[in-house]
Amino acid sequence: MSAATVAASRSTTSSSSATAAPPATVTDSALVRRAVKAAALGNAMEWFDFGVYSYIAVTLGKVFFPSGDPTAQLLSTFGAFAAAFLVRPLGGMIFGPLGDRVGRQKVLALTMIMMAAGTFAIGLIPSYASIGVWAPVLLLAARLVQGFSTGGEYAGASTFIAEYAPDKRRGFLGSWLEFGTLAGYIGGAGLVTLMTALLSADDLTSWGWRIPFLIAGPMGLIGLYLRMRLEETPAFAAELEKAESERPKVPLRDMITGQWKALLLCVGLVLVFNVTDYMLLSYMPSYLTSELKYDETHGLLVVLGVMALMMIVQPFAGALTDRVGRRPVIAAGCVGFLLLSLPALLLIREGSLLAVGLGMAALGLLLVCFTSAMPAALPALFPTRVRYGSLSIGFNVSVSLFGGTTPLVVTALIGATGNLMMPAYYMMAAAVVGGVAVWFMAESAGRPLPGSAPAVEG
Question: Whole-structure pTM over 0.70, yes or no?
Fold first, then answer.
């Protein structure tokens, strides 16, 4: 038996009529902490890259998409950003079912290698001035590698933590996954801010922009080391112990058609989660600079402060979801974005540092309602035998269609209409969809994952 668990058997009271209840899994707190660290670090590395790409988008536009029109440059850069999300469902369809077949730990190690390689490669690509059209082509290729690998990352990491965590602390422990996301964003934003302050515009464009991407190599090796040291999750280990006749391989089609209700809920929840996430953390820095003509360094510092505030609140909000449930916390976020998106954006547009900070902080605290609850809520939608695969498909389809395209779509909408309030309207529409999904989802706080034995603290 794995060191991660101890079977607390409830023996039968009658050999003829009584049936043994499912054994509880007693979790090993040291292994749980290691699992959370390894999963969160991988997520941090993924979002370090996405954060850097978003915050340095204007510079990347000059390097890879030379044009006299800054808006066209920004659209081209965000187009390459969005392209990575188009292959995420393909990555999810491959890595997710593979994780249900060979194990979560092996697949998460593979996605870590690919993610680090794709990010590191961006830092090595020559500029458009050096190799012409091959520069944006290679950038796109590296982004596609990143997108393919991340198709198996978030669903796998959230599944990994959820299956290790005791039932009564799944929200708190799952919240550290998004703590890693925020840490990655802060690392990316902080580094870009530092480079912007220390380097001249020419130095940043000629070589400085490469530094954040090259850092991904060492980060990837550290994350790979941590993930290779982990054991398989107790829930998946229990699945492996079943007779092969009881655990048939699940075709990809059945992961979709057999779970269609849960998949629809997943898509709706991920839509509101990721539209608001990418709007605040990826798009708003460029919005402040390009649309509101806000000073670039001050804009980045405001976003950095908001993310630091979110990190402080994140674990407490995760613990709150264990006490009051995932549904009330997610619902509060949906209602908040519906009612406060317009006032918050009007504050941001007012332009003063205080007003921008207050508006961004309001959106950030509302976003914590999702970042704290989703890592525990989403894996609980699916049974163990298809959890990684079905969650990967639903999550990545929603992210690809709605989340990753948010910067591109909103930039295009503002360009077409001239209405600078488009970000607020977009978040409000997402909140309505999320609210419908919350209405139909079942509460999972304090309960065993579907298809898994109860998990208790050791």
Answer: yes
